[in-house]
Amino acid sequence: MKDIVFCSNNCFVLYSAAVQAKNSDSKESVPTLPQSPMKERPPKAFHQYSNNISTLDVHCLPQLQEKVSPPSSPPIMFPPAFEAAKVEAKPDELKVTVKLKPRLKAIHSSLEDCRPPNKKWKGMKWKKWSIQIVIPKGSFKPPCEEEIDEFLKKMGTTLKPDPVPKDYRKCCFCHEEGDGLTDGPARLLNLDLDLWVHLNCALWSTEVYETQAGALINVELALRRGLQMKCMFCHKMGATSGCHRLRCTNIYHFTCAIKAQCMFFKDKTMLCPMHKPKGTHEQELNYFAVFRRVYVQRDEVRQIASIVQRGERDHTFRVGSLIFHAVGQLLPQQMQAFHSSKALFPVGYEASRLYWSMRYANRRCRYLCSIEEKDGLPLFVIKVVEQGHEDLVLTDTTPK
C-alpha cells in the first residue's frame, strides 16, 4: 500500500492505493495520475485534507473590444483527473468536482470582417457626420436677382443704400427717358436748358454732321424739322432719320429704325427695309457704340440770356463747380451804382461754389455768394459752410 500526494489549488490531497484499486474496477474508472517520486511513509499514517470548495468554476472574461480573432486553436485537452468526476461518497474518499466552461468565441460574418473596428478615445465613441443633399426631381430654375433681393429684404440681414432717383430727362427726338444703351441710343447730351437728346438720335439725323473736334452741328435744325415729321414705325412725331434712297419719304426715329431692321452704313447713311440690298453688305454697320468725345455745338451766351429772361424756374444751372441759384434784379435808381465797365451787380443774386477749405489742406467746403444793398451801394457777402464748424460770414464793398 502506497500513498500518493498531489497539490491542487493550494490543497494537499492524499489518495490511497486501495481507493485507486476500487475505482479501477468500476465502469466509469478514472485513470490514475502519474506517480511522482515521493518518499514512503509508514503504512499506519493516514492523513486526510479536505476543503470547503465543492465546485470549482473557471470563468473566462468576455472580450470588451470586438477585434478580428486569429484562427481558432484546437480545444485544450485536460487530464482525465480534472474532468467532471462523480464518485460515490465513502468515508475513505475525497470528493472533488471541477467544471470548466467553454471559452467564448466571437463569431464574425463576412460583412463584419470588412468593417473597421469602432474607435474609442477616453471612453467616448467616435461618430461620423454625413451630409445628404436632396435635389428635387425635374428642372431646377435658379432664382433671379429680383427674387434674391426680395428675400434678403425680408430677412433684413443686408444694408442696402437708398435707391437712385429715377432719371426723368427725356430725349427730344425719341421721347424716351434716361440714358439709352451704349449699343443703342447711347447717353443723353444737353441741347438747351432742360432739353436733352440721345447721342445717336442726334448723330444719325439727316442734317447733323460731326466735326473733327467732336462737335455736332445743326442739331437744333434737325429738332425743329422733327417736330413736324411722323415716324413710319411708331407713328409719333420727332423722326429725323430718313432713307437715303432718292425720292423715298420713309423716315424713322433712330430706335425705331433698328426695330424696323433698316440697314445702316459706315458713311452715316441708312436705307429702309424696302430699299436695302438683300443679304449682307461689306459697308454695313452693326455696332453703334460711341466712346469718343461728342458734344452739341451751342451758343452759350444766348443760352445764359434765356435763363435770365425766364424768371422763376424749378431747375438748377451749373457751370463747373459754380451752382447758380438766383439772378436778382436792379431798379432804375440803382443802375448807376450797381455796375462797372465789365459786370453788373444785381441785388438778390445768389450762387454757391464748392472750393478748397481755408482750414484744411485736402478738404473742400461750400461758399455761398450773394449780393445785398447797403446805403445805396452793393454789399458782397460770402458765407463759408463747413462741416464741424460754425458758418463764417465775410462781407465787403467790392467783389475782390
UniProtKB/TrEMBL annotation:
Keywords recorded for this protein, A-Z: Chromatin regulator, Metal-binding, Methyltransferase, Nucleus, Repeat, S-adenosyl-L-methionine, Transcription, Transcription regulation, Transferase, Zinc, Zinc-finger
One GO cellular component term: MLL3/4 complex
Protein name (Swiss-Prot/TrEMBL): [histone H3]-lysine(4) N-methyltransferase
PHD-type domain mapped to chain residues: 168-276
Pfam families: FYRN, zf-HC5HC2H_2
Enzyme class, first EC level, given as a word: transferase
Main location: nucleus
Coiled-coil ranges per UniProt: none
Underlying gene: Kmt2c
Gene Ontology MF: a single term: transcription coactivator activity
Compartment annotation: Nucleus
Catalytic activity: L-lysyl(4)-[histone H3] + S-adenosyl-L-methionine = N(6)-methyl-L-lysyl(4)-[histone H3] + S-adenosyl-L-homocysteine + H(+)
